[in-house]
Amino acid sequence: MTRTVSAMRRVSRGVGFGIDIGGSGIKGAPVDLARGEFRAERMRIPTPTPSTPAAVAQTVHAVLASFGTHSGTLPIGVTFPAVIQHGVARTAANVDSSWIGTDVDALLTERLGRAVVVLNDADAAGLAETRYGAAKDVRGVVFVATLGTGIGSALICDGQLVPNTELGHLELRGHDAETRAADSARTRDGLSWAQWAKRLQRYFTAIENLLWPDLIVVGGGVSKKADKFLPLLDLRTPIVPAELRNDGGIIGAALHAAEHA
Question: Model pTM greater than 0.85?
Answer without folding.
Answer: yes
